[in-house]
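Crash report, auto-generated. Payload:
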Amino acid sequence: MAQAFRLGGELHEVWLSRTPRGYDLHIGEQRVAVALHGRGEHVHELVVGDQSRSVYVAVRGDNVHVHLDGEAHTLAYSHNLERFASEGQDRSEATARAPMPGSVISIPVEAGQAVKRGDVVVVIESMKMETAICAGLDGTVETIHVQQGQTFERDSLLVTLLPTEAP
Amino acid sequence: MKSWPFDTVLIANRGEIALRILRSVQQLGLKAAVVFHRADSRAPAVRQADHAIEITGTTPVAAYLDSAQILQAAKQCGAGAIHPGYGFLSENANFARACRDAGIRFVGPTPEVIDLMGDKVRARAFVQKHGFPVAPSAIEDDAPGTFLERARAVGFPLLIKPAAGGGGKGMRVVRTADQLAGEIERARSEGQRYFGDGRLYVERYIENPRHIEVQVLGDTHGKLVHLYERECSVQRRFQKIVEETPSPALDEVRRREICDTAAGISRSAGYSNAGTVEFIYGMGGEFYFLEMNTRLQVEHPVTEQLLGIDLVAEQLRVAAGDHLSFTQDDLKPRGHAIEFRVYAEDAAAGYLPTTGPILLLREPTGEGVRVDTGIVAGQEVTAAFDPMLAKLVITGSDRADAMARADTALRDYVLLGCKTNLAFLRRLLRNPAFVAGEVHTGFLDAHPEVAAEPAMAPDTVNALLAVASMASRPVKDAADAVPALHSAIGGWRN
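Recovered output after restart:
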């Protein structure tokens, strides 16, 4: 069954099969013999067809980090379930997420407070700049997920809003 | 052997600069103490220090800004001097004063000079009064009620700067009059938060200027020399990325002029210890005083490589009350040095900071290659601190030689787990305009192709997918679960 890796924002389907002599990699209609031989800690010899080169590899969770030809790349293994689930369900306008890592400067709203679309709900600092995170819709503040002074990673959930019911 | 008035130096900083200072302290036969926040407990400087004292704070940054705790740490380990590095307390006159009051030598200029140069408005006025060049400006404090009109009169584009600022923080370019009032309010809020001071000034924004700065070093006996210039024009968000010396822009006449101006400003201020005078340098060769940084700069290593000196060791000698051991004529620049700042950031995504674990780290080595780093494999890069991870400093016989060595070193620099700007730096190094030395502070905006990630060759994509497939358990396991049915091998079959 085909599996997939995400590389530079694109999903690439592959599958690997055993052969009497090793492994074949299938990408679309293409098929090639591949091998990865350990040559020391994190250093490997990669063989693709009749080409061989040295690569550095580090794996953490679903991420495969590769240093190839003088450049680092990250491939993320994509679980089948995730690929078939509709993306972005949780990314509606009812949530305010961090566009970048940073820290919370102030939270001008309280849970339960009514807000209008465009109202500032959190002010964050990142890259030495202040950025205002605004409500994406009219509603009330359901949950504030961060505290003043707290640092967070990119895509962290900051505030959840409860949309105002349509009249 | 030289006798010192102190035997222990406390390093009030973190990251690469803490380790850099530690190296010189220990080479001089002195003991190095460091303070550290828990988030840095695995840092190499903490491991290599003779004393390491934990400090705490509401955030990691707050710990390194807590002068009372740091002074307490200095007393605890018997440090007779404190080296503040850059950032944090390095340009805090009150901290320098508190050190003096506690009988501890602050490795830097006097609190009075820090005060003068730290107030960007006073510094400008001082420089102008002593006959050195400054850019057209309007200063809020002169008459706060008419600031907006006076700012407008300076003309657009203009640059809003916090009076107490530095390092590009809180600076904003305004191109049209209707944005002025709003941007002033935003700059004021940032200034208030970063420096506890919301006062501003505006300056005419020189389009496409170069940023050229001059290193100075003075002793406490009135002797001061310059240590030549550094070209620091390649910047993003007003922060430097690449610095080199000599500047490709200067001929011998201009070089002498700008270096002598820097030394003249510093002498007028009674400057002692290491400092840097920054200038904006226009396309016509005109230059204006920008600010003076009263501390060791991030990019000091290029000067060290050019002149074969150890600036931190010189700073410590000056702090010990020694006379400068060389004259201006003794300083002979040789070759070319260039520094690349390795940042945890995604250049193609607007230089957004990145985070992640450092799973594998192989730093380049070789002739002319110096890496100033504070990170180790196993460490987590977080959003808690500045995203600079390390500095790659390359020295060559001339600029072309240094750039050729840099290309190899950037290729050999392996850091896996957290996205960095290493590939971006290599693209920059190969950009024809950069190769020609045609840089200015708007260089990266004018050359967006440097930040953009080029499309990968199909061959590269296939090689990466091959590695990922072989290294991923689910993919490998799925393959191993099925017996070998095919015996075809080698070559793509279409």
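Post-recovery validation: Residues 5 and 78 of chain A are 5 Å apart (CA to CA).
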